[in-house]
Amino acid sequence: MRAAIAVLAGDGIGPEVITEGLRCLEAIGSLFGHGFTLTELAFGGDAIERYGDPLPEATLSACRAADAVLLGAIGGPKWSAPDARVRPEAGLLRLRKELGTFANLRPVKVLPALADASTLKREVIEGVDLIFVRELTGGIYFGEKHRDAERASDLCTYSAIEIERIVRVAARLARGRRRKLTSIDKSNVLETSRLWREVSARVIAREFPDVSLEHMLVDAAAMHLIRRPRDFDVLVTENMFGDILTDEASMLAGSLGLLPSASLGAGKSGIYEPIHGSAPDIAGRGIANPYGTILSVALLLRYSLELPSEADTLERAVSAALAAGARTVDIASPAERAVTTEEAGAAVLSRLERRG
């Protein structure tokens, strides 16, 4: 097959980890006989510097036309001042909205070779294999905002339709796994969460009677993710709760740098990115963890290009590289030599080459 990929390297360590992701994507193409047309585009802080806009129209048009979007990371202190006129994050929010990618999938799986990379006890995290489904285009991030010298407000709104569609995505995933869905809200306080709980219960009862639904308050979920993470299978929640909880869940796997994500809409196209930020403090030092980006490429292969065997092959290569000790500084033990960003990518490539 031939596929068009829009590449948004972004800021900080974004270009470094994207380079390794693209090397692995091209290796998969060579191995399985696929071709990829890669178009590199300005985005985030880089685009602000060049065009005064974090999401230039040319970038947005190319993303709309592509089969998938691969994103590195955006942001940094240069654009984060309280009085900044425009921020890189505004480009990301607009891109998600314009592409209609309302469902953010964030899998968290503890690999046996990395059970010691987490700060939690091995017996707590061994066997963890869960996936978050975060609603991505509604809630407080997109609500009406107001600020003056003395007061500020951010409006959180959700419609039944928005809740229904994200719950359906999560329930379909649960059907293919352990048929267990946890819906996370704050219904003891928030009206949006009360609607969320009512609608999610209705959708599961009517459309997915074979899926077990558990409701959980967000503060309890935050506790139980650390206390008993193996009990979770698929978790669905609103935008801000999902943003916070998935960063917490990344510590189960050992590092933010390990986790990929896929942002999907009604069609096949999607936005694929590691969940970490731009990490400007380590940019240019060659020590960033590229595994989250490489695993995001695997999600791109699976969901947008519908190439599950290729995705499985890439994920196994990452697991093999980590099992062989190719660990960047964020997951290496004090006694180990940490590999560079490029060496981590090369370790994955060598496993792909051996398969070929």
How would you characterize this protein structure?
The protein is an alpha/beta fold and 356 residues long. 43% of the residues lie in helices and 19% in strands. It has 2 domains: 1-100 and 266-356, Isopropylmalate Dehydrogenase (3-Layer(aba) Sandwich), CATH 3.40.718.10; 118-253, Isopropylmalate Dehydrogenase (3-Layer(aba) Sandwich). The strands form 2 sheets. It has a 10-stranded mixed β-sheet with strand order 2-1-3-12-11-4-5-10-8-9, with helices on both faces. Strands 6-7 form a two-stranded antiparallel sheet. The longest helix has 19 residues, at 14-32. The two termini are 18 Å apart.
Layout of secondary structure:
Elements: E1 2-10, H1 14-32, E2 35-40, H2 45-51, H3 57-65, E3 68-73, H4 88-99, E4 103-109, H5 122-125, E5 129-135, E6 145-147, E7 152-154, H6 160-175, E8 180-185, H7 191-207, E9 212-217, H8 218-227, E10 234-237, H9 239-253, E11 260-264, E12 270-274, H10 291-303, H11 308-323, H12 341-355
Parallel strand pairs: 1-2, 1-3, 3-12, 5-10, 8-9, 8-10
Antiparallel strand pairs: 4-5, 4-11, 6-7, 11-12
Helix pairs in contact: 1-10, 1-12, 6-7, 8-9, 10-11, 11-12
